[in-house]
Amino acid sequence: xxxRERQDLNNGFGxxxxxxFELAATPAIFGGIGWLVDRWVGTLPLFTLVLLFFGIAGxxxxxxxxxxxxxxxxxxxxxxxxxxxxxxxx
Length: 90
Prior knowledge:
With 90 residues, this protein is mainly alpha-helical. The chain has helices spanning 3-41, 46-76, 82-89. The two termini are 37 Å apart.
């Protein structure tokens, strides 16, 4: 394994770890903020649930669009698009 492949592998591990942390921490932080607001206001777990689901939905939204952007970039450089790029350039 050469240096470039090793760097790509390590970058992949780093990206996966940061995304896993993001998926777990964001809803937990929003849920915790909701819990604090509920204690301060004196309501039932209304804000906890609302902010928790807001965190889950926001994380899912960001994950979906990040995936879509990366796949479009990957497909643009894919083998099946090479002939089309060469025809368009000519």
